[in-house]
């Protein structure tokens, strides 16, 4: 695709490295070519961003395409939703077993990566990096060759061991022998990291064992949250980080939801020097289980579950002080008909399009700077996952991935107005003041004011181990 030449003028650049800058940006050959005042506009299209804020394109660190729809269909629909939310790069939890032609989850990714990247490059409207879901020794042994090919992050589940529903979704729970082997291997391959879903199945089973079938069918979100307590998350993280300390591996803990879990991360960093990165998600920063009680069916079901108001406040303090490095969504598209029962319905919901508006709106209320938000929504992810300086910032030579936002325009979130194939959102009715006006991907305007201008422009992002 031939890239456009642009000058975006009169706006305020939100630079994650230097803060807010009133300057113009010139884009040529898909990258930022100049930043300054009164840049030459000859031969360029001009975007007047007066009164607007220009962010580096947002990076969603945690996305599940293809869980309930085909991977190809989700690449088409959900990446349009991403563009509408200013997200220019998303990180897909790749699963060998969730393609048109079924393969066992333990399949070597060398057999399927060509198929996956071909689907992305033909159908996606934003760029996609991949975390590879691994679950056996044979895949772990291939980590050096995966890294050499540009895939440097690997997902594991300490929970869901033997659970049929999770296996169908490609979420293969593994025991500690696999976790330790993975960390040992990651520690020996520079630039790689292990991403580990942490919830202790045994503790959850203890809290759920007394529930009768009738109670399960009628369970509220609050009671469901109580049946998956924060100690289950915190214990698994503690064990993971003990192994990380022993092996020297770099680990990334996704979707952290609780005070106890974050305190474990803080302690491991402080006392053991563990290199651990912490991610939370939009839902934990904006919703509580009490909020979820008021919604239809299981619209807001996700695991880990949302917690209470005081936990939400604590998570925001951890965003402010840097304990939390990144914010993702755990985005998963499905039909509303799947979300009827809190107990038996699958977890997950769409979140790509609403992430930045919700996070920025709430952060402003809490006095958190736009620079900090640009770090947790773009820069930190790019740095941690090996995409910097190509992604995550606005500097000379970086990909011209940009989201232009109007921070004065109020919107009300409605599922029917979003671009996901899902027709619902747990954020229904919430008001935001962070309107995504336009999105640029590698120098091309792909979205503006509700309209997808250039679809199918995304590509696979390959990363090089350091």
Descriptive keywords:
466 residues, alpha/beta, 33% helix, 16 helices
Structure description:
The chain has 466 residues and is α/β, with parallel strands linked by helices. Helix content is 33%, strand content 21%. The chain is built from 16 helices and 22 strands. The chain has helices spanning 71-84, 113-123, 137-141, 143-148, 164-168, 176-186, 201-208, 213-217, 221-226, 230-247, 259-272, 282-286, 289-293, 309-321, 355-365, 370-384, and strands spanning 6-9, 12-15, 19-22, 24-28, 31-36, 45-48, 53-56, 58-64, 87-94, 127-133, 153-157, 193-197, 251-253, 276-281, 326-328, 331-332, 402-406, 411-412, 431-432, 435-441, 444-448, 451-452. The strands form four sheets. Strands 15-14-13-12-11-10-9-8-16 form a nine-stranded parallel sheet. The protein has a seven-stranded mixed sheet with strand order 3-2-7-17-20-21-22, covered by helices on one side. Strand 20 (435-441) and strand 21 form a beta hairpin. Helix 10 (230-247) packs parallel to helix 11 (259-272). 53% of the residues are buried. The model has no long low-confidence stretch (mean pLDDT 96).
């Amino acid at each position: 695709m031939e890239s456009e030449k642009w000058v975006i003028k009169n706006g305020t650049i939100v630079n994650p490295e230097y803060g807010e800058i009133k300057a113009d940006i010139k884009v040529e050959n898909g990258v930022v070519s100049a930043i300054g005042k009164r840049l030459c506009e000859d031969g360029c299209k001009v975007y007047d961003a007066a009164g607007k804020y220009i962010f580096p394109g947002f990076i969603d660190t945690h996305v599940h395409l293809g869980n309930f729809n085909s991977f190809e269909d989700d690449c088409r629909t959900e990446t349009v939703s991403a563009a509408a939310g200013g997200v220019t790069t998303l990180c897909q939890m790749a699963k060998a077993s969730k393609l048109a032609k079924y393969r066992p989850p333990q399949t070597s990714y060398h057999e399927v990566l060509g198929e996956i990247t071909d689907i992305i490059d033909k159908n996606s409207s934003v760029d996609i990096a991949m975390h590879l879901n691994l679950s056996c020794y044979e895949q772990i042994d291939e980590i050096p060759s995966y890294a050499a090919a540009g895939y440097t992050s690997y997902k594991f589940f300490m929970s869901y061991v033997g659970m049929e529903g999770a296996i169908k979704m490609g979420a293969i729970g593994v025991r500690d022998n696999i976790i330790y082997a993975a960390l040992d291997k990651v520690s020996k391959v520079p630039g790689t990291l292990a991403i580990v879903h942490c919830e202790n199945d045994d503790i959850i089973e203890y809290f759920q064992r007394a529930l009768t079938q009738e109670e399960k069918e009628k369970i509220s979100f609050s009671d469901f949250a109580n049946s998956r307590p924060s100690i289950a998350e915190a214990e698994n993280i503690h064990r993971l980080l003990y192994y990380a300390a022993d092996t020297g591996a770099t680990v990334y803990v996704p979707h952290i939801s609780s005070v106890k879990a974050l305190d474990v991360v803080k302690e491991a960093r402080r006392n053991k020097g563990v290199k651990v990165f912490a991610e939370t998600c939009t839902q934990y920063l904006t919703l509580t289980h009490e909020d979820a009680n008021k919604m239809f069916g299981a619209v807001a079901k996700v695991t880990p579950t949302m917690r209470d108001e005081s936990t939400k406040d604590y998570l925001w303090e951890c965003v402010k002080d840097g304990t939390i490095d990144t914010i993702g969504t755990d985005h998963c598209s499905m039909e509303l008909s799947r979300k009827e029962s809190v107990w038996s319905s699958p977890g997950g919901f769409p979140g790509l399009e609403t992430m930045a508006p919700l996070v920025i709106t709430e952060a402003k209320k809490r006095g958190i700077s736009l620079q900090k938000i640009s770090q947790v929504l773009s820069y930190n992810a790019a740095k941690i996952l090996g995409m910097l300086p190509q992604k995550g910032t606005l500097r000379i030579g970086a990909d011209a991935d940009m989201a232009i936002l109007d921070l004065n325009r109020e919107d009300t979130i409605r599922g029917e107005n979003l671009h996901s194939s899902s027709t619902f959102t747990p954020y229904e009715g919430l008001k935001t003041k962070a309107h995504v006006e336009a999105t640029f991907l590698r120098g091309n305007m792909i979205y503006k004011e509700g309209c997808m201008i250039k679809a199918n422009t995304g590509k696979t992002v390959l990363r090089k181990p350091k």
